């Protein structure tokens, strides 16, 4: 189980102003974000479209922390090199995106980037078991992927607990994505998660003109997990 001080908060720029990514990223990092989470959607694997490697490359120079790229695309393999070249530090692909997840994770590792495996709410923890030696991060989706602002699925908490037990002493992050708020965050950190993606709950009420609201929102999540005993 990670210590509470190791909990990382990764705001998702899906909830940022799409016309002002550079300043939005500078604002969240200045206000305490640990990583920057970038949601790539293809309108096929998920029913929404966002952006591709060119946008990732353009925003990379604004990111001082970690660029955490969540690929909600299928196929995946043909685009791995492009996202690696765009400057991703972590590239996460979905177990459900294709039949050859083992190969996909090998391909991500081959670029020298950290490899993540995302599991949709309908996918069991056991899907990760044969892949543990190839992953640096497991992303547990606590909403169905595609949109920000959805309601947290409590049914996923047991999956987090199972994964943490399955991981044992391996250096693998468990990231939670979807519906994270000061209310839901402690439920997943207590179950073994150590990276919290948060879109609407970080950006809501703030702007690049009022970045202190981002800071307040980030600190509220951090304070909520720190009140839970390790
Ligand atoms: C959903 C995305 C999430 C999303 C989270 O498909 O992967 O990263 O932005 O948004 P919130 O925190 O608003 O649920
Ligand atoms: Zn995401």
TrEMBL record:
The keyword Ribosomal protein does not apply. Its EC number is 5.1.3.1. A divalent metal cation binds at residues 37, 39, 70, 177. Pfam families: Ribul_P_3_epim. It is an enzyme of class 5 (isomerase). Binds 1 divalent metal cation per subunit. InterPro entries: Aldolase_TIM, Ribul_P_3_epim, Ribul_P_3_epim-like, RibuloseP-bd_barrel. One of its GO terms (molecular function) is metal ion binding. The keyword Glycoprotein does not apply. Substrate binds at residues 12, 70, 146-149, 177-179, 199-200. Belongs to the ribulose-phosphate 3-epimerase family. This is Ribulose-phosphate 3-epimerase. The gene is rpe.
């Amino acid at each position: 189980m990670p210590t509470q001080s190791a909990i990382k908060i990764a705001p998702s720029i899906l909830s940022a102003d799409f016309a002002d990514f550079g300043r939005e990223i500078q604002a969240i990092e200045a206000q305490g974000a640990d990583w920057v989470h970038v949601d790539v959607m293809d309108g096929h694997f998920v029913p929404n479209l966002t952006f591709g490697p060119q946008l990732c490359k353009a925003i990379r120079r604004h990111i001082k922390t970690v660029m955490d790229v969540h690929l909600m695309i299928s196929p995946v393999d043909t685009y791995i090199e492009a996202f690696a070249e765009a400057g991703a530090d972590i590239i996460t692909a979905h177990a459900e995106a294709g039949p050859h997840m083992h190969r996909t994770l090998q391909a991500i590792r081959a670029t020298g980037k950290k490899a993540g495996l995302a599991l949709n709410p309908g996918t069991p923890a056991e899907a990760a078991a044969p892949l543990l030696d190839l992953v640096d991060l497991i992303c547990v989706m606590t909403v169905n992927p595609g949109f920000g602002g959805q309601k947290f699925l409590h049914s996923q908490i047991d999956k987090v607990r199972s994964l943490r037990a399955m991981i044992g002493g391996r250096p693998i992050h468990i990231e939670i994505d979807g519906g994270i708020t000061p209310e839901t965050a402690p439920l997943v950190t207590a179950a073994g998660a150590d990276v919290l993606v948060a879109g609407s709950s970080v950006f809501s009420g703030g702007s690049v003109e009022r970045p202190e609201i981002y800071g307040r929102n980030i600190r509220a999540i951090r304070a909520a997990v720190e009140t839970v005993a390790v």
